[in-house]
């Protein structure tokens, strides 16, 4: 699902910002595209890391929205590739299940911000504008449940092994089918 850049608007206006969307959910990508186009962005979109690399050959986006889980691949690879190609691009990573492990990895690889789905256009645009951390952010949030801690440990292990289920199960000391059942109950997105 690679989309070419639309021509700039006529009338000599300033060049609108270019937004790259890397999202494998076609309906969500279409919704994001339309919403950002209404806000004056030019949008290019793809559903994979390879598609992103192709788009980067001809375009230099100012902003990027990257889904964490792309059809079996990790959006973290997209963050790393994009940051290496463009030092000043503002990258927001979106995911259906946010975990501490993937948030840390995304930021270490160059993401500007990390948002849990559902995130709307306002949330994403606000995240583009955040350039520094917030020292006043609350640190005494609610306690995590044992199930949440287990899930974060599973997700961290999966990220460490590039989402290889067999290797993650081995490292976690559980049967592969047990891990697969846990993932079916709470899929990665």
Describe the structure.
This protein is of the alpha/beta class and 189 residues long. It is 44% helix and 15% strand. The strands form two sheets. It has a five-stranded parallel sheet with strand order 2-1-3-6-7, with helices on both faces. Strands 4-5 form a two-stranded antiparallel sheet. α2 packs parallel to α3 (75-85). The model is unreliable at 1-12 (pLDDT under 50).
Can you tell me the residue ranges where pLDDT is under 50 for at least 5 consecutive residues? 1-12
Characterize the main sheet.
5 strands, parallel
Specify the overall morphology.
globular
Strand arrangement within the widest β-sheet reads 2-1-3-6-7
Give the ordered list of helices and strands: EHEHEEEHEHEHHHH
What is the mean pLDDT? 82
Strand content: 15-25%
Span between termini: 18 Å
Structural class: alpha/beta
Q: Please state the CA-atom Rg, rounded to the nearest Å.
A: 18 Å
Work out the number of β strands: 7
Helix content: 40-55%
Number of helices: 8
């Amino acid at each position: 699902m690679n989309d070419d850049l639309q021509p700039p608007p006529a009338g000599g206006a300033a060049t609108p910002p270019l937004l790259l969307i890397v999202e494998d959910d076609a309906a969500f990508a279409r919704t994001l595209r339309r919403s950002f186009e209404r806000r004056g962005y030019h949008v290019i979109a793809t559903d994979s890391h390879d598609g992103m690399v192709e788009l980067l050959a001809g375009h230099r986006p100012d902003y990027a929205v990257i889904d964490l889980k792309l059809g079996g691949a990790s959006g973290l690879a997209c963050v790393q590739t994009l940051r290496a190609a463009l030092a000043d691009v503002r990258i927001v990573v979106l995911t259906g299940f946010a975990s501490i492990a993937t948030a840390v990895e995304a930021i270490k690889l160059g993401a500007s911000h990390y948002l849990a789905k559902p995130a709307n256009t306002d949330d994403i645009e606000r995240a583009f504008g955040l350039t520094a951390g917030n020292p006043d952010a609350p640190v005494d949030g609610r306690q995590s449940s044992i199930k949440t801690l287990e899930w974060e440990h599973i997700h961290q292990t999966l990220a460490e092994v590039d989402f290889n289920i067999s290797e993650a199960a081995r490292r976690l000391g559980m049967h592969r089918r047990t891990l697969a059942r846990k993932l079916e109950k709470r899929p990665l997105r």
